[in-house]
Amino acid sequence: xxxxxxxxxxxxxxxxxxxxxxxxxxxxxxxxxxxxxxxxxxxxxxxxxxxxxxxxxxxxxxxxxxxxxxxxxxxxxxxxxxxxxxxxxxxxxxxxxxxxxxxxxxxxxxxxxxxxxxxxxxxxxxxxxxxxxxxxxxxxxxxxxxxxxxxxxxxxxxxxxxxxxxxxxxxxxxxxxxxxxxxxxxxxxxxxxxxxxxxxxxxxxxxxxxxxxxxxxxxxxxxxxxxxxxxxxxxxxxxxxxxxxxxxxxxxxxxxxxx
Length: 259
Known about the structure:
The structure is a single chain. Helices cover 32% and strands 21% of the residues. It is an alpha+beta fold. A hairpin with a 5-residue loop joins strand 10 (217-219) and strand 11 (225-229).
């Protein structure tokens, strides 16, 4: 089934990204440390993102289309915080206040929460991105499960609003060890449109001479790696199949070189 076009969605993308940074800041100060910093990453949930269960606290869910956070504390019922029309700073204030009312004196990590401009999210575009993210996450999750060996969890990184995981080529499951990075980004410097990405680490000098499965391409400007542009697969009848086929080709080409 074709995916939404995601046209003229900059304000919605920025708003969702800003909200994810607020939610991730809670994981950063409460979650138990995990290898490769995955404890600061958010997890996918249908319709949005979640902190998942946090020690002695509960969880916070981010619903894209409803434009709200659902705070589910262990000692109280679910409570909603709308984030439409307020700034990221105000949203952080509201979340801290909600936690403090229930006896959780938590100060969020505000290193990325600086904007005082109102969050402006279009409901339809937010719902469209939820559809896109669901399809991509299902494709990445299925591909991840098909790989042998050690892998990091599939998480959404609030810093860049991208999602991804690492496959480790040896029994050392740390980011300094040889690995393949697979993921999806809604936008980044040099890319105005969403894209799937993959790259090996360390990168072979002649990496870009290896053929890629269509319709992927090599990107060699600010970084080097495989890029599968969103507009190259969103109209396909089975976008997930295209993503998995391209990434499987990347794995088959580079995994033997990293072992």
